[in-house]
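Working notes for the structural subgroup meeting. M.R. asked for a predicted model of this chain before we commit to crystallization trials. I am recording the input and output together here so anyone reviewing the notebook later can reproduce the run.

Input as submitted:
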Amino acid sequence: MRVLILALLALLPALPAAAQSPAADPRPGFHFAPARNWMNDPNGLVYYDGEYHLFYQYNPHGDRWGHMSWGHAVSRDLVTWQHLPIAIPETEVMAFSGSAVIDWKNTAGFNRDGKPAMVAVYTGFDPKTKNQSQYLAYSNDRGRSFTRFGKVLDIGSTEFRDPKVFWHAGTRRWVMVAVKAAEKKAAIYSSPDLKHWTHESDFGRTPSAQSINWECPDLFELPVQGGKPGETRWVLMVSQGDKGPDGGSGGQYFVGAFDGKTFTLEPGWDDAPHWQDLGADFYAAQSWSEMPDGRRIWIGWATDLRYAHAIPTYPARGLMTVPRTLALRREGSDWRLAQAPVRELEAHRGTPTQLRDVRLSETPTPLKLGDSLDMLVTFDPLKASQVALTLTDAQGYALLIGYTPATREVFIDRTRAGPHFHDAFPDRNIATLPPGDGPITLRLLVDRSIVELYAADGTRVITDRFFRGGGALTWSANAMDGEAVIRTLEAWPIE
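Returned structure, recorded in token form:
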């Protein structure tokens, strides 16, 4: 269904030139964006030979969805990216989303000169028949070019896509999890050689699967922080096209066990949706394979399917979040995914602005901060009903980032954050913190047109984009219905 929606949106007329002005949306300072044209899902995330590979859905011919190919960039620190030529171009089929692995054991027979092949498994979409099947391509030059092997799995479906492949040590076989999208099921397959696949099981449909579809799955094992030594759980991720945290697209996670064939939910799992991110703009997240230090790191496409085609940016339309490290924690009888920006970002911090004990009232207090920064701020609300940071542009449009003590809610309010471009965009996204009182600490990544908010040790995350009307952004802070205090604020420009 996402294919149909985006294809129809691609036929809509382009935005007026004024709305596409680069001055209205400066390029991000430390979030990945293509040099130009349309970008959506991250694909093929893999580490090899000192490089983190970021492939992504890309239209080389325009800034609307279409002609889907695999764009490509590499990084040595997950922050600074080098753009490379298209890795897997559109041919008779479009190259939809998928994943990449390093075939260390040469199971597929593609290794050359004693070096392992990088193997991409992706969905091929035939525009004539609408068939979606899984295809394979391989690279012997560190991902710079790929040779197509061809189709390896076809179940005769128009809604079968987004394979995530990994090596399962217990069964000594490759595992693929793909989605039967309209059925809202994650289909699990196994293979000895990446070429021949056997269906093992399906997970879903769950009571929380109320969306139009499931997409972009991921499946991995995480240690339980604070659990018994060596305790782990498997986490299954799915994205969904609508009915997310604010009504648009979003992502859920499920915690359980996996034996190489079947994913089983944790006993007593509460099947109310467990959201990956409580903002509007986090979708199609995928994690890196072959991480050299054992971390589980993923990245998401920072948009909502309702308005992805309409965001007022030019010449590129599409942005990724900062890569995030994942952890799993218990919270009472429940489970929480905890996320944090990768530590490599800290090496790019400049000289910080540091503030202490700033008294706040209803009159905004100006703060001299930049528009591309990493911030830690601790609020003490005292008796105030709300405390907030405000980003205002030269035309008076304002984005609010704040906290409401009575309800324990942190929020991003973008109802007045820029000129109107889509009815679904103005909203206020909230995350409810665990019970407590007193000061709270937030980590904020702000990068010209995106905010990532991390609270409660990363167990509550809100990602939202915003688009200024024009001019520089300025910061202020205020409290409502009484005084509050910024106990500490440390903001580093990202260079």
